[in-house]
Amino acid sequence: MNQTAEEKTGGVVLDVNGLTIAYETRKGDVHAVRDVSFRVRRGETVGLVGESGCGKSTIAFGIVQFLGTNGKILNGQVVFQGNDLVDRSDAELKRLRGDRISMVYQDPMQALNPAMRLGEQLKEVLTCHQDISQEEAWERSVAMLKRVYMPDPEDVMQRFMHQISGGQQQRVVIAMAMLNNPALLIMDEPTTALDVTVEAAVLDLLEELKQDFQTANIFITHNLGVVARVSDYLCVMYAGELVERGPIHDIFQNPRHPYTMGLLACVPRLGESKLDSVLYPIRGRVPSPAARPDNACIFAPRCDYATEECTKALPAMMEIDTGHLARCIYAKEIDTQPRTHRVRRGTVRPKPAASEPKKEDADLLQLDGLKIYYPQESNSLVSMLGLGKKRYVKAVDDISVRLAKGRTLGVVGESGCGKSSLVKGIIGLEEITGGDIEFMGFDVTQPVRERDRKLIQEMQMVFQNPDSTLNPSYPIGKQIARPIKKFKTVPKHQVKDEVLRLLKAVRLGSVYYDRLPRQLSGGEKQRVGIARALASRPDLIICDEPVSALDVSVQAAVINLLLEIQKGFGASMIFIAHDLSVVRYFSDDIAVMYLGQVVEIGPAEAIYSPPYHPYTEALLSAVPIPDPDAEQKEIRLSGNVPSALDPPSGCRFHTRCPRRKEMLPDGGDICETEVPSWRESGRHRILCHIPIEELKRLDPVVHQEVA
Amino acid sequence: MTQPDSSIPADSPEIIVPDTDVIRFVRLRRLWEGLSVLFASKIAVAGLVIVLFWVGVAIFAPLLTPFSPLEQDWKHPNEGPSEEHILGTDELGRDLWSRLIYGARVVLVILPVSQNLWIPGGTAIWGVFVALTVGTTLGLISGYYGGWLDEITMRLLDAMMAIPVILLFLIIMTALGASAVNVVIAITIVGTPGIARLVRSLTLDIRTREYIRAAETRGESPWYIMFIEILPNARGPIIVDAMLRVGYAIFAMGTLGFLGLGMPPPSPDWGSMVAKGREFILQGSPWAALWPSLAIASLVVGLNLLADGLREESMRYQ
After folding, report:
1. Could B232 and A471 be called an inter-chain contact, meaning their C-beta atoms sit closer than 8 Å?
2. B18 with A510: Cβ contact below 8 A
3. Can you give the pLDDT at residue A343?
């Protein structure tokens, strides 16, 4: 019956029409989603992209009528397989949810019940909606786990969620969603919480499942790279409105709405660097739901193309091509060629010799065999008495790196590889187990409290989370003034002027002096964090994922700001991030870390082209590229990152290495027993048993058409 | 036609107009915001009214009654409310209204240190204040340093918490003797462990924030981090807890007075008033026991309402 209803509508599973959703608040109704229309067909993935607060998730919950006590659908239809879902009874909706429509959420940790065995949770999905025996439910669950490539599914059924890794958890959640063979699968940022290599594998799986089950998919994400990989059709959301929709290739090649263009221009593509391209941030911020105009283009205040016309009426969706619509009155006229972000910097900033360190540049920071181990507390009586053998988590194990003055060292690696421990060790927040750190010619192996004031002053840090980087109790001005007073960089009576100067340097005005952190947006808080780090006039600024918690448009502005500051203040930087495109864009040199060790280090451009360390190659092939036409090698790592408590013998990467079997004689047995030595090619070094000549023969990971 | 000027990156977040008037307004508004949290909750306002009533009558006690609390009227013992004595008299003919509001003074506005010397701030207030100071310091140190220091401090405080509160009060008061200052000491000793635990748990959370990391990378001293960076961010729950504790303290003072361990007689003490008046309830004059009981109850309820309202409203505010 369902099939016939679908055939009547030409394979359309879901037809959302003029959907408007509001939340009731004390100040009256707030419209979170306004007049959104799109369709999803069988076997098709529709991507919903937009920055945070744009109403993406609200749409997902609106489709299944799961808006909480204060949310309601004001207008529009949600036609699912020919039936309108709006205003259905709870009982009817309950039958649909989890059966015909299922959802996958961002955090698998919260989607699974920690107190129930995974098998029970999977079975429940079947027995709840179908008249089916326990045994059959069990067998079908196991079959589905096999289908999502879960190793050892019988065993996994008996486990609890904390006994499997994050990527495996998400596979279980996906298996759970697919068990009843739903007609519609809604995924809300399903890979955001995962590491890039795991993400790539999950995305492959989703693509495969789509082909096999012919499900209609809605894929919500803020990541343009991810959406380019999985979607057939794209909807771009801005401030609760759909601003552009169309086939994925049309939108990426020919974006017609200024917001879409902005989004594409503000993320660095893999392989681009600060030397040859500019990022264009979108100015301002997403207006709050209460401050959105009814009769004007919602994007006009942030739009470079806006004219007075734009503020006179809400623009309608204008058809540009078959199926490609944009909500802009100038959609057909504005000139997108040349794409702003392709502007070469050649003329703006002549390619400086910065890519090669000058001979006279002394090393600012030298790490020599640095080790940071955390003792692993055990609860046994023996270890409590201090007997027994102590075990250590080797967070950083034997790292030697040099950083020259004025340069930027990027550190990449997946979560748990020791990036953060490394910088904490350098700055003195973590005690060092062994090795040497030399900073400006002084030994700084001691914790920060024992360091000389002058040395502390020269090394400062920018943090990741904008919401916790500033003390909520004090106004901005006071927080920036503190390091100035403490290190006496200026005489007392000039402190306020200095604060205002720093605020200006991070592009914030003097009104911010008296504001409290909670009155600032995420990007603004991050700017203040940067100003605070600059206040002591340091020579080395350590940036620990400074942009990863920010929206892409804001991210670009902060990256530009950091670059500008580096140019202006001449500071060296260590830049940590898990986003390989951002690190490539920002850094002069890059170190790739795996399990507490640096496996590859060298100039940025060398890291991103052969020869690669096999791990770097796998990382690069997993990076989602915001271009549906880019060709990328598919190298997927098997297994999980081994525990740092007991790292593998020989080469630490040997358990997951996809290259050793084919590129080394006798299947790379040597990797399991012997620690590899550095293979060098100029300043580029790779820690691998495979000879560098062999590695050089590898094809580049990404083939991207350069416009 | 509408080609933007793309020569400069559109970096600047918004147009900025420095304005000193704005800055002054910001400060005023912040104060107002704090008060509006209080006034937004009807429960908190109700509590505030009750508490302010008692504080008011305690401060202006000499103006509100013609009688001294010690003045005895032999002709009119154990009388009910009349025009002369609005709440009646006790067994010695002392005016109950006077004794009640002078009793409130000791609780809320003055602390008699010796016969001739008193300092502002009531016994209950001082007790909680000292407990708060000691408890907060212990909690901050324990939570921020962790390790053995934390372990030892917390186990000691746990041991103290294991003793029933009333028993602890009795032990302390019998050991020290009955006086206002000793009541303050007793309230401090009894209240400290709970406050220390609360502050410690708040510290454990706050110390993981990145602004604490930032302070550490600046080389700030532990004292600066504990009192300047951490403490202000823990103030909300501490204030609410302190209000509840003033309530407990008043309750405890009543109990001690009732057992004869409070203010030395003949000073007007709510607890001892109830104890004395209790004997005459069945003889037809419940007034001497009723009024101080109501006073204790209303003040404790008022403080609880205030604390609850504040907590609820500040949670919604976040």
Report:
1. yes
2. yes
3. 43
Q: How many CB atoms lie within 10 A of CB A109?
A: 15
* pLDDT single digits (tens) A421-446: 899 999 998 888 888 999 988 888 88
Taking the C-alpha atoms of residue A412 and residue A578, their distance in angstroms, rounded to an integer, is 6
Contacts B211 to A, Cβ<8 Å: 468-471, 479
Same structural domain for residues B262 and B272? no
Which domains does chain A possess? 108-179 (no CATH), 254-342 (no CATH), 353-591 (3.40.50.300), 609-703 (no CATH)
In a domain, B174, yes or no: yes
Q: Which residues contact A665 (CB under 8 A, 6 or more apart)?
A: none
User: Is cis: bond before A338, omega within 30 of 0?
Assistant: yes
Phi, psi of B169, rounded to the nearest 5 degrees = -60, -50
* Domain boundary residue, one of B226, B246, B266: B266
Element (H, E) at B98: helix B96-108
Q: What is the pLDDT of residues A589-621, one digit of tens each?
A: 999 999 889 999 999 888 888 888 999 999 888
Residue B115 falls within a domain, yes or no? no
Please check whether residue B225 is in contact with residue B175, taking contact to mean a CB–CB distance below 8 angstroms: no
Strands (E), chain B: 110-112, 118-120
Q: Which two tokens stand for residue A418?
A: 């020791």
Q: Are residues B135 and B255 in the same domain?
A: yes
* pLDDT higher than 50, residue A240: yes
CA dist., res. A111 & res. A95, Å (int): 19
Cα B295 from Cα B303, distance rounded (Å): 12
For B217, which of A285, A460, A465 is closest by C-beta distance? A460
- Say whether both B102 and B153 belong to one domain: no
Whole-angstrom distance, CA of residue A635 vs CA of residue A658: 8
Do residue B133 and residue B261 come from a single domain? yes
Q: Which of A218, A246, A169 is nearest to A63 (CA)?
A: A218
What are the pLDDT digits (tens) for B145-176?
Answer: 988 999 999 999 999 999 998 899 989 999 99
Q: Residue A573 half-sphere exposure, CB side, CA atoms within 13 Å?
A: 27
Query: What pLDDT sits at residue A412?
Result: 92
Buried/exposed B269-295: b ≥16 CB within 10 Å, e otherwise: bbbbbbbbbeebeeeebbbbbbbbbeb
What is the CATH classification number for the domain harbouring B172? Answer: 1.10.3720.10
Residues B224 and B309 placed together within one structural domain of the fold: no
Q: Does one domain contain both B185 and B247?
A: yes
Contact A306, A376 (CB under 8 A): no
User: Measuring CA to CA, which residue among A427, A546, A530 is closest to residue A476?
Assistant: A530
Interface of A with B in 617-646 (CB under 8 A): none
Indicate if B130 and B240 belong to the same structural domain.
yes
> Is the residue at B12 inside a domain?
no
For B5, the closest chain A residue by CA position comes to A304
CA distance B148 to chain A (A): 13
CB A463 to CB B30 under 8 A? Answer: no
Q: Are residues B78 and B215 in the same domain?
A: no
| Strand boundaries in A26-146, DSSP class E | 28-41, 45-49, 71-80, 83-84, 101-104
What's the CA gap between B105 and B90, in Å, rounded? Answer: 19
- The total domain count for chain B is 2
Report the SS3 class of residue B170.
Answer: helix
Q: Which residue of A has its CA nearest to B28?
A: A514
Between CA A220 and CA A235 the distance in angstroms is: 10
Q: What share of chain B is helix, strand, coil (3-state, %, to 5)?
A: 70, 5, 30
Residue B83 lies in a domain: yes
- What phi and psi values does residue A327 have, to the nearest 5 degrees? -95, 70
What's the domain range around B250? 121-266
Q: What is the structure's pLDDT at A161?
A: 86
